[in-house]
Amino acid sequence: MKLIFNTLSILFLSMSLFAQDTEIQPYEVVKELDTVEIRYYPSATLVETNGDNTFGKLFQYISGNNENNEKIAMTAPVYMSENKSEMAFVMPLEVHQNGAPLPKSKNVRLRITEPRYVAAIRYSGYTNADKEMSHKKQLLETLRTNGIEPLGEVEYLGYDSPYKFYNRRNEVVVEVSYKQ
Hints:
CATH architecture: Alpha-Beta Barrel
Low-confidence stretches: 3-19
Mean pLDDT: 90
Shape: globular
Strand content: 25-35%
Order of helices and strands: HEEEEHEEEHEEHEE
Helix content: 25-40%
């Protein structure tokens, strides 16, 4: 039993030590409402697509399928539309500041976002439709209770590789009409 415990301890420690640091899209928490955060997101560059194989098309773009044949670091989060038909990767801050290379693929496009306020609720573990629906309801109810108007559709954010087994981070977010 002790051997199994020691082996698992070494495995988990080595996984955390050798895990890559992933750049996270910057934001500032401006207000907390129970488990909901109101965040300010500055402008960012997203590479996005829709249809089939959304992750594959975006991964090809950051792997060099772009006009500069440039490899671009993976960042977090990955944005997914509510119906899962659209996906977007956030470009690293340096790429945003210097300009992202144009995609070679026809169904992949770049979009520069405007600064915005977003309401977010975080949860852990692997995501699924039940968790997403439950957290979406909780997010929208908290906003309604506090008189904050959601704008647009809910999005789901994933921060981790599918191979990460513990301390996973997922979020349900929606842009909001918010004034400080």
